[in-house]
Amino acid sequence: MLDRNAVAKADLISVIFTATDDIHSIFPATAARAIGLGDVPLLCAQELDVMGGMPRCIRVLMHLTTELDRLHHVYLEGARGLRDDLPE
To answer: What average pLDDT is seen over the chain?
Structure first.
């Protein structure tokens, strides 16, 4: 997500992760710390358990400072169907 939008780690204010209740192996924030985001405030929460919701899904909301006119959303595998209203 940072690479696709040319965002520097120094521009991050905080990151919130939500995960569906079938994610058990690691906290998303733990993985983020392992790739160098240990000095950024990170928060994990559980996604709502909604019937028909996408399984094994982690969502990421990054708060950052930027002067970019437009940011590009990043979807992996089948997650693109979560927001088909957004431009590519």
So the answer is: 86
